[in-house]
Write a structure and sequence with these properties.
This protein is an alpha+beta fold.
């Protein structure tokens, strides 16, 4: 598997207004073209947080643990549509209630994203897709103990600190 570098992403301003479009390749080339993404933090009733493992073929942060669900907003979608699509595609979850937490700009050497963050508590089964290298629930103490050791994506670590779970 491989990411489609020709996939079209919407470009947005810092408030989330769509102002154009560019390919995945252009957005991830160091151009810093701002594009919207969605993240969902999935907790179980015991308060543990589900994390996905990124597969080795991903173009950004391969092999690292990351937010339960994260994905790009497709051209023509709004944030809520993208969240529903990504959560169903990546985790096989359709029956959940997302709570919006915040949005912020994440910038790395390769990209600049406007991240819309949600959370949910879910007690059903999670079926990670072939887009992922599996996933599992982690206690918040376990996550805190492994921060800064190259296990998690930098984006997850900065977001986890912002959310202060």
């Amino acid at each position: 598997m491989k990411d489609n570098s020709n996939e079209l992403f919407p470009l947005c301003d810092e408030e989330g207004n769509i102002i154009g479009s560019a390919t995945r390749g252009e957005c991830h080339s160091g151009s810093k073209l701002l594009h919207p993404v969605v993240h969902l933090h999935v907790f179980n009733p015991q308060g543990e947080l589900y994390l996905q493992k990124r597969p080795a073929w991903k173009d950004i942060q391969p092999g690292k643990w990351d937010t339960a669900c994260g994905g790009h907003v497709d051209l023509g979608e709004n944030v809520e549509m993208a969240l529903r699509r990504e959560v169903q595609e990546e985790l096989g979850i359709t029956d959940y209630l997302p709570t919006p937490l915040l949005h912020y700009i994440f910038e790395s050497a390769r990209e600049r994203e406007l991240v819309f963050v949600f959370r949910t508590t879910y007690e059903g089964e999670i079926h990670p897709s072939e887009e992922l290298d599996g996933g599992r629930f982690w206690s918040l103490e376990e996550i805190r103990a492994k921060m800064g050791k190259g296990i998690f994506t930098p984006n997850f670590e900065s977001e986890f600190a912002k959310l202060n779970f």
